[in-house]
Amino acid sequence: MISVYELSLALQNEKRTGELLSLPKDFYKNLQNSYPEAQDSNEHSSLVKLSEGLKKRRIQKLLIYLAYGKTLPKPIPEEEEDLYIQIKNIIDKTAPEAKPIKMKISKKIPTVITPSGSSIGPFEQDETVYLTNITDIKFIVDNKIGEIAES
Question: Above 80 in pLDDT, residue 97?
Answer without folding.
Answer: no
